[in-house]
Amino acid sequence: MNDRFHCFPEPEALVQAAVADFLALLNACDGECHIALAGGNTPRRFYTALAEAGAGRDWSAVHFWFGDERAVSHDHPDSNFRMARESLLGPLAIPAERIHPMPVPDPVLPVSLDAAARDYEAELRRFLSETADGWPRFDLILLGMGEDGHTASLFPGTAALEEAHRAVVPVHVASRNAWRLTLTLPVINAARHVWVMVTGSAKAPALQRFRSRLEPALPIQRVQPAGGCDWYVDAAAMGGDCP
Ligand code: 6PG
Predict the structure, then answer these.
(1) Angstrom distance (rounded) from CA 36 to CA 116
(2) Ligand 1 mean position to 134 CA, how many Å?
(3) Where do the domains of the chain lie?
(4) What is the pTM of this model?
(5) CB-neighbour burial class of residue 84 (10 A; exposed 0-12, middle 13-18, buried 19+)
(6) Does residue 83's CB lie within 6 angstroms of at least one atom of ligand 1?
(7) Helix (H) or strand (E) run with residue 196 in it
(8) How far apart are CA 92 and CA 172, in angstroms?
(9) What angle do CA 147, 151, 154 make, to 5 degrees?
(10) 207 lines ligand 1 (CB under 6 A)
(11) Do 134 and 153 meet the contact criterion of CB atoms below 8 Å apart?
């Protein structure tokens, strides 16, 4: 495992460091920069801090994508797109042509969600360069981790976790009785950079299990990009103290 852990005593210190690292990564982007945003609650503060710190920056080379999406309207409180629009994309006034939300059909039917996944993959392939083995390559994919070790919408026991041919698939999360769309492991592992942002004591058991490499592997353990992941964690998620 060639992951790098960046541990901070409090979430705010983590956010400020991640903002600085993110802006440095953008400066190193050659040409267009394609970023996949994480959903959930953890990244919201990071996004608002990034919008504040990046207010005067030229964002014209940056395209924003999504690592996963809940199968709800983009105005629904659970929508990852809505969260990113409110906290980052709106405040930075990113134009629509550089924002790529995952399309959510209405009504949500398996067949239409599958078509939406295929449409998103086609859009990815129109914009992103590909790796030697044919996967669209993000410059950065931001991820979170659930208490069960899921990431994006790759939940334990789901077929999405085993997908080896498609970059984007629909997934039914039985434990939540909910449909989602998600990037798959091959495209996550093809990214130039992968960051995993985890805070809070509720995540400590899963993070400890990840670090001890226990079997069966948690979904997050299967995120193994060539360059390793950068973890941004607070002391609470590390069991109370940074190592
Ligand atoms: C989502 C995310 C998901 C998230 C984890 C952690 O759509 O929910 O993509 O993978 O990162 O569930 O969520 P929290 O940050 O809310 O704990």
Answers:
(1) 17
(2) 28
(3) 4-234
(4) 0.98
(5) buried
(6) no
(7) strand 193-198
(8) 33
(9) 110
(10) no
(11) no
Which residues, at least 6 apart from 44, have a Cβ–Cβ distance to it below 8 Å?
Answer: 83, 87
- Count CA atoms closer than 13 A to 132's CA, side-chain side: 0
Q: Look up residue 2 and give its DSSP letter.
A: -
Q: Which CATH number fits domain 4-234: 3.40.50.970, 3.40.50.12710, 3.30.420.10, 3.40.50.1360?
A: 3.40.50.1360
Q: Which residues of the chain have pLDDT under 70?
A: none
Token digits of residue 71: 């199968």
Residue with tokens 């398996």: 110
Task: List the Cα angle 175/35/167 in 5-degree steps.
Answer: 55
Query: For the segment 92-143, what is each residue's pLDDT rounded down to a tens digit?
Result: 999 999 999 999 999 999 999 999 999 999 999 999 999 999 999 999 999 9
How many other CB atoms sit within 10 Å of the CB of residue 125?
A: 14
Within 107-241, residue ranges assigned H as helices are 110-127, 185-189, 204-212
- 39 touches ligand 1 (CB under 6 Å): yes
